[in-house]
Amino acid sequence: MKNPIRWFAALLLLLVCAAAVPAESHAQSKLKKLGQVLGRVKEAVDDPAAAARNALGLNGTGAQANPAPGLMEVKLVSCTGDPATGEVSIVIAVTALKSEYTQANFGNTVKAFDGDGGTYEDKSGMKENVQLPVGVPVKVEMARQIAGVPAGTPSLRLVQATWYLDSSAHYGKERKFLQFSDVPIQWGETPAPAAGQ
Q: Three-class SS string for 55-105?
């Protein structure tokens, strides 16, 4: 009878140890998550603007927040400024990813913000529908006249634009902006005309 009792005790000990290991791993997982949260809090305290850009998915120079990543790809092509007028224009490249969404409009309303608290708007008010062949990037002038930017401003901290794909589907109605962060401005260069314009 001693052997079955020993086997039972050993089995019970193994079960207790096995149950303790996942609990320890779970506790370690919770500590790791707490460390990540504390890291984000520290970032928000040390550099709140960077924390906000990271929360929006805007990391790095010219980074963008694409409001419809499954339907289109968007890349910043250029941001040029005219030092005589203080007007800035922005060209993007848009690629349709699905054949149902090939008619687009970008930039009916464009707002830009610099690092010193300045706010600027695109005053051109002229936007056109753009046809997007699937899988082929098309250059689009997203902003034509962002007015009043002081000449020599090195970059725009944030640029946000309204958009839609295929007006019958009304993509964009959810009020998510197409956004670019830390956009460098090239002053004194003439922007290339966007395709189809």
A: HCCCCCCCCEECCCCCCEEEEEEEEEEECCCCEEEEEEEEEECCCCCCEEE
pTM: predicted TM-score of the whole model, two decimal places: 0.64
Where exactly are the structural domains of the chain? 2-46, 64-187
CA–CA distance, 58 with 56 (Å, rounded to integer):
5
Residues with Cβ within 8 Å of 138's Cβ and at least 6 positions away in sequence, in order, are: 93, 94, 95, 130, 131, 132, 195, 196
Residue 21 and residue 43: Cα distance in Å, rounded?
33
| Tokens of residue 189, six digits | 């260069």
pLDDT one-digit tens code per residue, 165-175: 876 665 656 66
CB 161 within 8 A of CB 109: yes
The CATH code of domain 64-187 reads: 2.60.40
Whether the Cβ atoms of residue 44 and residue 51 lie closer than 8 Å to each other:
yes
